Known about the structure:
The protein is 34% helix and 14% strand. A hairpin with a 3-residue loop joins strand 2 and strand 3 (60-66). It starts with 12 loop residues before the first strand and ends in a 21-residue tail after the last helix. The chain has a 4-stranded antiparallel beta sheet. It contains 5 helices and 4 strands; from the N terminus they run E-H-E-E-H-H-E-H-H. The protein has helices at residues 32-46, 74-91, 101-105, 123-140, 155-160, and strands at 13-19, 50-56, 60-66, 117-120. By secondary structure, it is an alpha+beta fold.
Amino acid sequence: MRCYIRNYVPGGTFFFTVVTYERRRMLTDALARPVFRSALRQVRAKWPFDIIAIVLLPDHVHTVWSLPADECDYSLRLQKVKEIFTKQYLAAGGTAAIPTPSEAFHGQRGIWQPRFWEHTVAGEDDLKRCVDYVHWNPVKHGFVRRVKDYAWSSFHRYVSAGEYAGDWGAEDPCPGLEMPE
């Protein structure tokens, strides 16, 4: 059995990749998007964190979160987002894939892969690379040719704040950087 070691840093900033079960392409569907947004809001109301950057792709989410100074339990927050999303998505008419008997025995519902990938952000340069990677990801996967054409991303908030030009991302801003997809 694998041993997963997480880096829990109070007040830390973290990059996450969360993937749907069997890479089902559902997260950008009209049903899933508002449910995902609602799950994030509900979790943030009870267990605060700041969303620095986020992109919602059909089969995975990349996001960068910053936790309050005295807190480090991002695993709980991600677990709750997945739980709330799953319950609300299924209640709204969404469907789940059929998990293996072992997965079903362990309470998995065929919506999310059981784990997630985490990277602890180390400083301002690393944060910029992570945020750029989040925003460039729809181009990387071929969903759009220009970053600004992808709707489900915090990129537009960054443009409004003057942190990116509207035509940012004409070329890969972080060549060679590979995060788990």
